[in-house]
Structures are given as structure tokens and as C-alpha cells.
Amino acid sequence: MKKGKQRVLSLFLSLVTVVQMAAVSPAAFAAEPEEDESQTITLQGSGTKDAPYQIANAEDLAAAVEAINQGEGYETACYQLTDDISMEEDFQPMETFSGVLDGSGHTITGLQVNSGTIRAALMEVNKGTIRDLGLTEVKISGSPTSGDVKRAAFAIENRGTVEGCYASGSLSGGWRVGGIVTENYGSVENCYFVGRVHGNWETGGIAAWCASENNRITNCYASVSGSATASSVGVITGYAYKETALTGNVALAGELTSPGSISRICGKESPMRTTSPARM
Fold first, then answer.
1. N or C: which end of the chain has fewer CB within 10 A?
2. Which residues pair with 204 in a beta bridge?
3. Could you tell me the pTM of the whole model?
4. pLDDT digits (tens, 9 = 90+) for 198-209
């Protein structure tokens, strides 16, 4: 009799164990949560004004660009160059930047962007501040297949501030081409460009085109060989609306050619055709 009771109890306990296992098995075999694909930046610093992320070489710059394009607050952080940088590979532009990029007087040499890139520059849109940075031996080319194709050393759209910066090199292959920025909606101050700019439409040594809203180019200078296939070209800017403030700028030297309008400071569109180069 005792053996029968023990057998029944054993079967009951086994049944309880099976039920418990069945109850927990869905969780045990559930799919593991997906890993967060966002990347934590590996640069020294914390990205604040007092402790900006430090960029010492091309690898650091690439890491910063990847983080900025990823978003998650990196695009609004502060960055500082701590050494000169030499680029050996094609550069992937930053997309939209709203922080502070402080060159601290250093240079990035050999900035090249794949010729097939639509908006080729250090960054596509600047809504923050770029200061005290030099870009030397810039080489950006391509084919102006549409009005979206634009070229500049620092930013395609400047909606913030570019100050104390300079660039040298050759930029071509854009519908609009500017030595420092392509389209200026903000402020370019105390900058200079030395080199060649060639565009299909508006082209300029500092900016290609200045917006029909408050913007300014102040105390800048340029020495350029500039040309526009179908529109206006200027040593400082190719085109500017009346809202643009152009103050204290100097056209040092250069040679300009265009079937459109040509001028030392602001080319601005004109029906007048110019068949011979204008010299400064």
C-alpha cells in the first residue's frame, strides 16, 4: 500500500515539474533582444565646450564623422583638432553639423571627396561654428549633371558661422562652386581662399551664392582662377541678393571668365557677355 502511495506521489511530482518547465520554456527560448547598433564614440574628451572631443589624426576624424552622421547628439557636440592631419583616402562628408569644430590653427591636408558625390565638402550643412581650421590641397571634382551637384571646401550650406578659416586647392564639377562655402545663409568671417574654382552656374572664391535673407561675408579675401560655364563669377561671391552684407572683403588677384556677369567682389547675374578674362 505504501509503495502504491509513493508511486502516485512520484508521478504527481513529475507532472508538477513538467508543468513548471512548460510555463517557463517560452521565456527560456525567446529571441534575445537585438543589440544596439549605435556606436559609442572612442575619442578623448566628453564633447562639451570645456572638454571637446579630441581629433588627432585621420582615424579620429573618420570616427567623428561617423558619430556625427549617426546623430544621437554627436552632431551638436564640440570637437577640437590637436594636430595637423593628412588625408590619404576619399573623405565621407559630415551631413548636418550643429556643434563647434575648432581647428585650433591646425590643417587638414588632401581633402578629397568621391567625384560622384552630389554635395561634396567637409560637411553638407553647417548650423554650428567652424573656426580656426585650414584645408590645404583640397581636390574636389565631378560633373554638374543637375542643380543638386555642389562643391565647396567647408560647407555646401552655411547656416551657421565659419570664422578664421582658409582653404587652398581646386574645386570643380558643381552646378554651384564656392571656395569656402557653396550657399551662404549665415556668416563667413575672416576667411580666405587661394586656388581654382570652376562651376556651371554661380561660382565664387568665398561663396558661390548668397541667400535672399540676412547673411554676411566679412573681412575675407581670395586669389582665384575662377570660371562659370553659364552664369556669374566673382572673386568673393558669384551671386548675392540685396540682403547680403559684404563688408571689408578684398579681391587680391585672379583671372575670371564667364559668359555671364563678372566682378571683383560680387559677380551677380547680368545679361552682359564677357569674352575676355577680367584681371584683378
1. N
2. 178, 234
3. 0.83
4. 999 999 999 999
